[in-house]
Amino acid sequence: MRRAAAAFVALASLALAAASKPVLVPDVSARNIEIRYSFTGAQLLLFGAILYPGGRAPSDSADVVVVVKGPVEPIIIREKQRIALIWMNADSSRFRSAPSFYAVASSRPIADLVDERTAAVYELGVQNLQLSPGTGALPEKARRFEAGLLDLRRRQGLYSENPRGVEISEGVLYRASIAIPSQVPVGTYTAETFLIDNGRVLAAATRDIEIGKSGFERFVALAARRHALLYGLVSMLLSLGLGWAAAAAFRRRF
Questions:
Q1: H-helix or E-strand spanning residue 143
Q2: Could you tell me if 28 and 189 are in contact, meaning their C-beta atoms sit under 8 angstroms apart?
Q3: What is the DSSP letter of 134?
Q4: SS3 at position 111
Q5: Sequence ranges of the domains in the chain
Q6: H or E element that contains 122
Q7: Is the pTM value of this prediction over 0.85?
Q8: Neighbour count for residue 118 (Cβ, 10 Å)
Q9: Each residue of 211-236: pLDDT tens digit?
Q10: Using one digit for the tens of pLDDT, what is the confidence trace for 184-219?
């Protein structure tokens, strides 16, 4: 991979000789990820090159941050409380848009690279995600539910951070590995790469990744979306049939 990246840098640098700012040339190991019944997750490799004006990297090389985001979606978070020895939903809060998946890797901790304002603008880090809470929520309640959402998705493996997850070679080649868990939703994901130096974002580039179901899982998903009524009836009949078969087997055994 290093030889291929070096050759690519040599070709691209000819067209960028007159550029005044560095340029990122990113790529990913897989533009399409298929989810089958046996899918247990995947490792997504993000790599690329930093093309500097004149074709030579400075002695003090910049840092790189890569971010992989899933499709945004509305979500309702419910808070449970123990009432009369029973855990019940006591309160809830709605977020209009939250990434279904978010993973960030950087060559150094983000707090060492940019200030809080820059991190918030580019959504660098889980704590800097713009989750858009629903209207009418008090600030204290919104913060509490936001912390709950982040904690929940961290425990599910859907939100993650790796402050030492990007390797930079010779100041121009970089690579990072992002774990894609088995329960990720389907859709179009974005892989964003940021070049940062002295607290400023010098360059940014984006690649799209498609995650979709294939085989029997794709057939079931399409059937549920295109023929919702028929899918519901078939699911109900299947559940009744399996229940009847289990009851018959139990009676024969005992």
A1: helix 139-155
A2: no
A3: P
A4: helix
A5: 2-213, 215-254
A6: none
A7: no
A8: 17
A9: 876 554 544 555 555 666 665 676 67
A10: 888 899 999 999 999 999 999 999 999 876 554 544
